[in-house]
Design goal:
By secondary structure, this protein is an alpha/beta fold. Helix content is 41%, strand content 16%. 49% of the residues are buried. Belongs to the TPP enzyme family.
Length: 548
């Protein structure tokens, strides 16, 4: 058998690790392994028109599969384009294996065109970043990176692959990467201590994040919350960690102002934190938001996040699923009859409140506004049997009301703070789950960050559906500056002109069609039903420009 270059062995290693799809945008310094990828049987390259788009599609694909995704960027310039989206993946713990080429180790001293320190660029937005400099260690480094990406807390990793290193003969064996098991539970004594801290609470709350979904611990979380009669708030929560329709689910704490989160937790006498850090606001509270004497237990596989900002009484570095199961059993043994009765009363009150909110929702005039008419029709036509990728932002509360996030894996919320994830995220999710109806919601501002993703959907006939909630502005900035004015006693006045997107008006449906995607514009509530029918009936990708 002829000796193989590193370019060929690299693709074989990716395939051995189940990374059979590479998302990317090609460049000259990557041409060697991209040529090998094109020849590899069963390997697929999904082309995006810009690296930010490729990174967003890869992130959506990984979130929908629950595994890793492979992303190729073009040296320093392409890595620079993708950094904002990689920050989303870092904050959301998405296991991306990111590779980029460079001209070669032998050119390092020349400071030539496009030369840059890729590892230094990638390090702030990845869990691990490295460069391969030895032709005999290419696959070893890839396996190490794959292991790190998939070991909780998961996250993106980056490998700089110099062209001359990959062009050399490679004699390394292709072996599947070893991923360690983290299905660990704490010692029985630690679980008993946690139960003792929580059992007698009069006003307990639970704060949750995506560590619950990553562990598949939704049922165990619900059981503990019900046993405590504790209201549950999503903190760093972008997946289905507790069904939205569960009576104890209170929604999100919010991601802008620490004062808002503090108002939700300040009365709790016991706090259980699971799979999240506290708190992820842009303007967080600098002093602890918890009341003096509140007993705080934090369960997470990410030791870094436990007591990162505020002290806790007990931190358990353990997998949430077995830990919550053990905690539920310990609480069952420890709670007195009086404590159990109090917890049931709290749960009953939450059920009554949930029923009242549902009755009020059902009595609404669902056809009053274009957005609600569209969502009501979509819910009715699909029976909510769809996967939602939600970057609607200021329209997200309405999206969640009509399309509740109840089934794990069927709802993905934007995370990380930067715009542009809704359209590429839905493309990736549909590619991962071709048998499901996938609808991506975005705003008109967010859409224009990555609208080129529609071209990728058209090129590969990825039949995702897209909804642009078009309010002709960066509405979230309007809301946030209003808060800024109130906090500083500044009289309300006209919003900055930079927040306005109304002129010139963007023809989202025409622009989508120019990229190969069928589209329709909806201006009035009475157009909503027909638009939903068109969108669902169309076999390929389809976009609705929804004026709200």
């Amino acid at each position: 058998m002829a000796a193989q270059r590193g370019t060929t062995k690299l693709i074989e290693q990716f395939q051995a690790d189940g990374l059979g799809i590479m998302f990317g945008n090609p460049g000259t310094v990557e041409q060697g392994f991209l040529d090998a990828a094109d020849k590899a049987e069963g390997f697929r390259y999904v082309l995006a028109l810009q690296e930010t788009v490729a990174a967003g599609i890869a992130d959506g694909y990984a979130r929908a599969t629950g595994g890793a995704a492979l992303l190729q960027l073009h040296t320093g310039v392409g890595l620079g384009n993708g950094i904002g989206m990689l920050y989303q993946s870092l904050r959301g713990h998405t296991p991306l294996v990111v590779v980029a080429g460079d001209a070669g180790v032998r050119y390092d001293a020349m400071d030539a065109q496009m030369a840059s320190d890729l590892v230094a660029m990638a390090r702030p937005v990845t869990k691990y970043a490295t460069r391969v400099t030895d032709p005999a260690s290419v696959l070893r480094v890839v396996r190490r990176a794959v292991k790190i990406a998939l070991t909780p807390p998961c996250g993106p990793v980056f490998i700089d692959l110099p062209m001359d290193v990959l062009d050399a003969v490679n004699l390394e064996p292709v072996l599947r990467s070893s991923i360690p098991s983290t299905r660990t539970a704490p010692a029985a004594a630690a679980v008993a201590e946690a139960a003792a801290l929580l059992a007698g609470a009069d006003n307990p709350i639970v704060l949750i994040g995506d560590g619950v979904a990553h562990a598949g611990a939704q049922d165990e979380l619900a059981a503990v919350a019900e046993r405590l009669g504790a209201r549950v708030w999503g903190v760093d929560s972008s997946e289905v960690n507790l069904p939205a329709s569960h009576p104890l689910n209170q929604g999100q704490t919010g991601h802008m102002f620490g004062e808002h989160s503090a108002s939700l937790v300040e009365r709790a006498d016991a706090v259980l934190i699971v799979g999240t850090y506290v708190f992820p606001e842009v303007f967080p509270a600098l002093e602890t938001p918890f009341r003096p004497g509140a007993r705080i237990v934090h369960i997470d596989l990410n030791a870094y996040e436990i007591a990162k900002n505020f002290p806790v009484d007990l931190g358990l570095v353990a997998d949430p699923k077995p830990t919550l199961a053990a905690l539920d059993a310990a609480l069952d043994r420890l709670q007195t009859a009086e404590q159990q009765a109090a917890a049931r009363r709290r749960l009953d009150r939450a059920r009554v409140e949930r029923a009242q909110r549902q009755a009020e929702f059902e009595q609404r005039d669902h056809e009053a506004e274009t957005l609600t008419a569209f969502l009501h029709a979509l819910s009715r036509e699909t029976g909510n049997d769809l996967v939602v990728f939600d970057e609607a932002l200021t329209s997200s509360p309405e999206v969640g009301a009509y399309l509740p996030a109840d089934r794990p894996g069927d709802y993905h919320l934007t995370r990380g703070g930067s715009l542009g994830v809704g359209i590429p995220g839905a493309v990736g999710a549909k590619l991962a789950r071709p048998d499901r109806t996938v609808v991506g919601f975005t705003g008109d501002g967010g859409a224009m960050y990555t609208y080129q993703a529609l071209w990728t959907a058209a090129r590969y006939d990825i039949g995702a559906k897209f909804v642009v909630c078009n309010n002709h502005k960066y509405r979230l900035l309007d809301d946030n500056i209003g808060q800024y004015w109130r906090e500083r006693g500044i009289p309300a006045h006209a919003f900055p002109a930079s927040f306005d997107l109304s002129h010139p008006a963007i023809d989202f449906s025409g622009l989508a069609q120019s990229l190969g995607v069928e589209a329709v514009r909806v201006d009035k509530p009475e157009q909503a039903v027909k638009a939903v029918e068109q969108m669902l009936r169309h076999p390929g990708p389809f976009l609705v420009d929804l004026h709200v």
